[in-house]
Amino acid sequence: MNSILNDKQQGLLAIFIANTIFGLNIPVTRSIVAHWMSPMGYTITRMLFGAIIFWIISSFLKYDKVQKKDLLMLMIGGLMGFLGTQLLFSQSLEYTTPVVFSLLMALTPVVVLILSAVMLKEGIPKRKILGIIISISGAALIILLSGTQGEMGSNNTLGIFYAFLCVLCYAGYLVLTRKISMKYQPVTVAKWMFLFSALASLPLSYSSLQNQRMFSDEATFQAYSLLAFSLLFSTTMAFFLMPVALKRLEASTVSIFMNLQPIVASVVAIVVGQDAFTWDKPVAALLVVIGVYLVTTQKGNQHKKEVATKKSVSQT
C-alpha cells in the first residue's frame, strides 16, 4: 500500500472510509436506541467490545511501548473522543433525527480550526476557510429547511444540545490526540483509549446492561445485525482508521470529512423511507463536496513551499 499511495493519500482514504461508516452508523444507532438499547447501555457495550477486540489484535502485533507521560493524554482522548462523544452521539439520536444530528456535526471543522489555531498554532489559509464556509453552508441549508418540513425528533431542542456537546468533545479529541496519533501505531492508540473508556464506564455496566432489550429473548435477527454493524465497523474499523488519518493529516483536514456523514445519512434515510428526496439535499451535497475539495487540496506553490519547509526542519 505504501508503494501505491503516499502518506497524505493514505490519510485521506482512511478518513473517507471512517466517515462513510460513521454516516451509516447514524441511522443504525437511531434504530438501536429507539427500540433495543438505552444510550448508556449502547455506549458501554461499544466501549467494552472495543477494549477487548483491540487488545486481542495488539497481542498479534509488534509491541509498541507507550511512555508513562503519554498515558494521561490517551486517557483524556479516550474519555473525550470515545466515551464522551459516543454517549452524547446516542443521547442526541434519542431525541432528534439522524439527518439533523449529522448536519449539526458538520460544525466540527469550525471548532477544530479555532482550537488548532489556539493550541497547535496551525495557520488557517484563506482557501481552507473558504472551503469550510461553503461546506458548512450546505449543512446549514438542510438544517434550516428540515425545521420547516416537520422532520423534527421527539425533543429536538435537547437533541441539538447534545449534538453541540458532541461537536465540542469530538473537536477537542481531534486536536488533543493528533501528536499522540503521530507517535504510536493506530492499534496502540485505540486499545488504550478504549481501555480507559471501558474502565470509566465499568461501574455502570451491570445496572445499564442487565435491562437492555437487546440482550433479552425479544431481540430479533435485525436487532443483532444492527448491533453487529456498529461493533465491527463503526466501533472497530472506523476507530482504527481515525488514528491512521490523524497521523498523516492536519486535525482541521480530518474534521472537514465530517461533512460526508450528513450525505451518507440522508441517502440511507431516503432509501429506507425515513426521509423524502427534496431539492435542498443534492444542492447541499454539492456544496459539501466543493468545500471538501478546497480544504483537502493545495495550490502548487503552497504545496512546494510546505514540502521545502518540512525538508529543512528534518535536516536541522
Task: Note the gap between the termini.
Answer: 30 Å
Q: How would you classify the helix and strand content by structural class?
A: mainly alpha
- Tally of helical runs: 14
Number of distinct beta strands? 0
Percent in strands: under 5%
| Low-confidence region ranges | 303-316
Write the layout of secondary structure elements.
Layout: H1 7-35, H2 39-58, H3 68-95, H4 98-104, H5 108-120, H6 126-148, H7 156-176, H8 178-183, H9 186-209, H10 221-248, H11 251-256, H12 260-271, H13 280-296, H14 300-315
Provide tags for this entry.
14 helices; about 325 residues; mainly alpha; single chain; about 0% strand
Question: Can you put this structure into words, describing what you see?
Answer:
- The chain is an all-alpha fold and 316 residues long.
- The protein has one domain.
- The chain contains 14 helices and no strands.
- It has helices at residues 7-35, 39-58, 68-95, 98-104, 108-120, 126-148, 156-176, 178-183, 186-209, 221-248, 251-256, 260-271, 280-296, 300-315.
- α3 runs antiparallel to α7 (156-176), α4 (98-104) packs antiparallel against α6 (126-148) and α4 packs antiparallel against α12 (260-271).
- The longest helix has 29 residues, at 7-35.
- It is globular.
- The chain starts with 6 loop residues before the first helix and ends with a helix.
- The relative contact order is 0.20.
- Mean pLDDT is 79; it is low at 303-316.
How is this structure best summarized?
With 316 residues, this protein is an all-alpha fold. It has 14 helices and no strands. The two termini are 30 Å apart.
